[in-house]
Predict the 3D structure of the following.
Amino acid sequence: MQLDHSFTVPAAPDDAWRLFHDLARVAPCMPGAVLDTLDGDAFTGRVKVKVGAVQMSYRGEGTVTRDEAARTVRLALSGSETRGAGTASAVVTAELTGDPDGTRVRVRTDLDITGRPAQFGRGIMTEVGDRIVGQFATRLAGLLSAPAAAVPAPPAAGAAEPEAVDLGAAALPVLLRRAAVPAAAVLAAAVLLRVLRRRT
């Protein structure tokens, strides 16, 4: 599954690019994720996801490569459920370009996921991704706009427990919108049937 997103952060491309070199500071901006270890361009971490009352925790690893000339970051990620058979792997490519409002970040995700989250279709996953990327962009913008002295140091590796990303809550508005048209059709049919019965 391929997902495309973009957002703008209020910082010059040079400043944004420098921040993207600091994975320890960027990682906490991603909802539901905690960075455990960072060794050069290799790292390990955890992600917690909630779908309704069910919580799933993933533990995984990844590598990061950067193209300085193109200002492109590429993350290769893989992980598996800590209590379950679900797996997830992704290649995430972020390209930074100049924008009148600061820096435009275009993100392409090639995602392969199994287990319960795979029940969501592409449309729902895209909108869920929009919400998660939106939260990430907001946190990243706050990090870029804060004075250097006011930016707290990243937490010690492995010290924090990730806060679960509620995919069910994120997907619910999408499901309701999709259900609106069939529901309206059923309601119209019921009203029409009632009118016909009264006439007869």
Summary: Residues 167-199 form the longest helix (33 residues). The first strand starts at residue 2 and ends at 9. The chain has four helices and eight strands. Residues 149-153, 178-188 have pLDDT under 50 and may be disordered.
